[in-house]
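Entry 12.
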Amino acid sequence: QFTPDLLPADLIGTMTYRPQTGEFVPRHGPIFSNIILADEVNRAPAKVQSAMLEAMEERQVTIGDTTFPLPRPFFVMATQNPIEQEGTYPLPEAQLDRFIMKLVVTYPTPEEELQILRRVGVEREVRLNTVLFPSDISHLQEVASRIKVDERVEEYIVSLVMSSRKEGETRSFHRFVEFGASPRATIYMYRCAKIRALFDGRSHVVPDDIKAVAEPVLAHRIIPSYEAEAEQLTATDLVNLLLSTVPFP
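Predicted 3D structure (tokens):
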């Protein structure tokens, strides 16, 4: 649970003194896990966000003057409160860029909310069953890496990301873009398309895989301009404009 008073040491760990030996020894924090669920990640101050950057990018953390590798597989899932709520901090773009996807959770449907209502106050024993082991996830990652991607699909990925930037070929929607997607968007769209093909039972990526993962991969990496805000265009709208503009292979 991320809170405004959270410290970097609470997340990654710290050096503790052992009077028996007169030595300082590392005490690992909760980040030394396979899956990190950072609830309300934007409630933590900037120093904690900075501490997460090394872990998310390098798969390692530094405690004192020693660097420790994190367990494999390792990934971070986070929830975020609306920025306008009191006690929250906007996440830095560098950290947002390290999240592969951003999924927007909307309000439940009437049927779903009715199910929520019926479950409130009903005491049930929750039993969790093991679905996957860490070794299974590592195996799936290895299998996904062998999914084939045609050169034309690779070029389509690069064209989408390059077209989101003003430095590329001038397009009509560039006036709505302050900053385009980074090279990480190219890498993550490539990887996500492979995983989608794997889950669909295919040994190769098709262009529809790219279109399916484009919004969750790109939307939080494209910064709308003031003109876009004036037109009430969101980053998701800009991704849809991008997909409709770049030629489909």
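Annotation: The chain has ten helices and eight strands. Residues 156 and 248 are 7 Å apart (CA to CA).
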